[in-house]
Predict the 3D structure of the following.
Amino acid sequence: MSATSYREAVRAALRDALARDPRVFLMGEDVGRYGGSYACSKGLLDEFGPERIRDTPLSEAGFVGAGIGAALGGMRPIVEIMTVNFSLLALDQIVNNAATIRHMSGGQFNIPLVIRMATGAGRQLAAQHSHSFEGWYAHVPGIRVVAPATLDDARGMLWTAIEDPNPVVIFEHATLYNLEGDLPEGAGAVDIDRARVRRAGRDVSLIAYGGSLHKAMTAADRLSAEGVEAEVIDLRSLRPIDDATIMASVRKTHRAVVVDEGWRTGSLAAEVSARITEQAFYDLDAPVARVCTEEVPIPYPKHLEDAALPQPEKIVTSTKALMGSHA
Amino acid sequence: MTDEELRKAVLTALASVAPELDEAALAPGKSFRDQLDIDSMDFLNYVIALHEALRIEIPEADQRHLTTINDAVAYLRRRLSQPTGS
Amino acid sequence: MPEFRMPSLGADMEAGILVEWLKKPGERVSRGDVIAVVETQKGAIEIEVFQPGTIERQMVQPGQKVAVGAPMALIRGEGEAAGAAPAPAAPAAPIPAPPAALGPAAGRVSPAARRRATELGLDLAGLLGSGPGGAVGLADVEAAAARRTQPAAAMREVIGAAMARSKREIPHYYLGHTVDLEPALLWLEAENLKRPVAERMLYGVLLLKAVALALHEYPEFNGVWSGGRFQPSEQINPGVAVSLRQGGLIAPSINGADRLTLPQLMAALRDLVRRARVGGLRSSELSDSTITVTSLGEQGSESVYPVIYPPQVAIVGFGAVATRPWVVDGAIAPRRVIVSSLAADHRVSDGHRGARFLAAITARLREPDRL
């Protein structure tokens, strides 16, 4: 075991992929000379050279398109879009090309592309730079969407994504880069299709992903002090969603709270809630609750930003409301 | 009233004090006070329920005829076939 | 503005669930008015107010669990200004609003609860909900099923705790006396001949009245042990032990039994037993007993050695009526007799006074027309 950080784990995953397969290369804004806007590729230019670590112009549509082309041509590109906020400029490439070429070509062409993006709010970057669009991407057939929330997943999901012959979008919550923890020495690839129970419990299922996972864990600790034992599920894969793990949990606890940093309306949480209703209705002892971001553009002042985002306290309050007078 | 109707009346009055009463399990020839754990208050309420349902006076001395289903039906049949007031 | 708080309805009660409010904001209440119904381990109890006033605000909703002592409502006393309520505590961090206004909780059952109730063959009608919005949830169904199959379970705990405490803390002494009840029973039969069946009296009221009257001369058996000493009571409120159909025991009191006529006592007893068995007892009936009377009735044993119910200091028991050979005017004759027994707190009284108390009860039973 060694003490490390989420950022270090991402970098280790990139180095491992670049070392293992010569078809792999990293491309994006400031990934080379600058070392990555979040320092994830620091030192990689020196180690692997400019052919493998490629700085791009400030044009998301351009370099994502180039990545799709490279993938079509047999490479294994890792395209880094600085944040999901800027990916909107490449939405056409991702949704209309990356996601559809295999279908439209009748299976003749694969796009083995990996797109990595930082996502989320919490650092006072205000309305245009604080989006959580995991739900929008998870809506689109033809791509896979994953959200590593732990060091193991930051280290291990990249290689599995590269090996997948289809486009995979990896969301790294910007507040997680500094997350510290331990990784076993031989830590390597992990699956990208299962959800994982991070904390076992019997009274309620807290379902979360990405940056919200740790808030759910904090909420679970607080609830435990009040005699409510929460089971916390890390979705990990947002498309496809691991229904089996979710339903097994809800059948046990009979209550669910879905935590999602997207806005409530039309959220990924709404999708999870609908699936629970479809598959575990008769096991529910209370309606499924959602803790999401308030329906406002993300505010700039800290106290307003904190009030708009999901927080452990809101998760605790929502859970207790579900318990009625059992809490 | 037929015996069947009388039997129903007795069971209804009994059920009003012993709601858990299971008709099929009740032995009609044995005292139901033992079978149903009915105390003196329950018994009095049962007698009053019979009195109100069938509109007949039941002297205290006659209460001993009402302790099994069969005896109760026989007693009530006798009383109801008599002219009122006796 | 005075807060109306959840009363303690038993030594071991910690909380109750509000079933329904019987008075609304704006209504005037007088001392003794029933304000709400609360579900406790002993069943549904009506709780009363002790201060007159007008209900200003209800602070608890039906279905909510309320700890003993927690405020339930604000009652504006006479002469207080309206709206002088304390500011409500600031709400916690905003939570997402539940979708679309929900109607009254009545009849709402969660899918899991409904399925479980079907599995258990449990009728959902009348079930109280403690889930969100007062909906019936799994826990409510499980509790109802447990009460149905093991109805005395919760009550047994309460009784057990009280009886253990009684035996631990109260130094009991016991006395017994066989009473010739024949004159009283004959008198009662003659009385009942004159009465329509609905007004017929049970011999239990004779026993109850005899005890109540005898307490006038022996006040050391009527009161409670509190603050390390005996506090005699001016009122005579005998608790009447009532067995519940599915097991369990409760002893609500008939307050001022000494001042009621026999017919009044019979009516009060019938009403009390009915309400005890369906769950409509009032809080004052459970907390005001100054002594308990327990009668085993026809199917009991010959005599009973009762346990004092704390914080009372005495309990009078009566065994089953039996026909025995007795000596009357020098000759043997069959008489219906009953064994009366007294268990009393030796810190308050001694056997000499206890024996005289029993004798006083016996004397009163010899003159039933004066009861």
Remarks:
- Chains B and A do not touch (no CB pair under 8 Å).
- Chain B has one domain: 3-19+27-81.
- Chain B has a mean pLDDT of 86.
- Residues 3-17 of chain B form the longest helix (15 residues).
